[in-house]
Amino acid sequence: DAGVIQSPRHEVTEMGQEVTLRCKPISGHNSLFWYRQTMMRGLELLIYFNNNVPIDDSGMPEDRFSAKMPNASFSTLKIQPSEPRDSAVYFCASSLTNYGYTFGSGTRLTVV
Amino acid sequence: AQSVTQPDIHITVSEGASLELRCNYSYGATPYLFWYVQSPGQGLQLLLKYFSGDTLVQGIKGFEAEFKRSQSSFNLRKPSVHWSDAAEYFCAVGSSGGYQKVTFGTGTKLQVIP
Known about the structure:
The complex is a heterodimer of chains A (112) and B (114).
Chain A: E1 5-7, E2 10-13, E3 19-24, E4 31-38, E5 42-50, E6 53-56, E7 65-71, E8 74-79, E9 88-96, E10 99-103, E11 107-111
Parallel strand pairs in A: 2-11
Antiparallel strand pairs in A: 1-3, 3-8, 4-5, 4-9, 5-6, 7-8, 9-10, 9-11
Chain B: E1 3-5, E2 10-14, E3 19-21, E4 24-26, E5 32-38, E6 44-50, E7 56-58, E8 64-68, E9 73-78, E10 87-94, E11 102-104, E12 108-113
Parallel strand pairs in B: 2-12
Antiparallel strand pairs in B: 1-4, 3-9, 5-6, 5-10, 7-8, 8-9, 10-11, 10-12
């Protein structure tokens, strides 16, 4: 298995632009998570999907952030418009019911 | 609400020395506990997990952790550290209910010196 695949690995964008991060979870996993990691705030859970349905999006910072999971093999996290304070590493993780997340390698987002 | 405290931000050990990374959790019931490791530029990798049963859990790369309910602790240990163990280590706690929300600690950065 190729693991959790995230794209792009790095993204540099200008403030105000739309950014879309992509994630392909491990086949057969029924849960998907989006995390953000910064030096100041550590790892923050943004949103959690179970069987493609958003269960908890209380960690999404504001309306500029949105996430979708149209099918079991693909999810996106979109930021529109992006701001410099959104700069962070964004991780996608997937798991089966018995926990033990598998993380992707992350997308390093820089908003200038 | 569940929470995790990793009191040591940074630890330096000599190669070959033993290691213990501390983790304290707060959770109202029996927790699910995890240790993850993150190498620079990489995602987090699961080292080991505790759900129930034997309180001493063996993981990958020679790591083990012991669940102590009386101390609300889940410390990570390794008898002899290798230079390749230099990384950041995260303790995490999850709920035993149906919702798989996992809360991570702030991490402990391990430096290994020759």
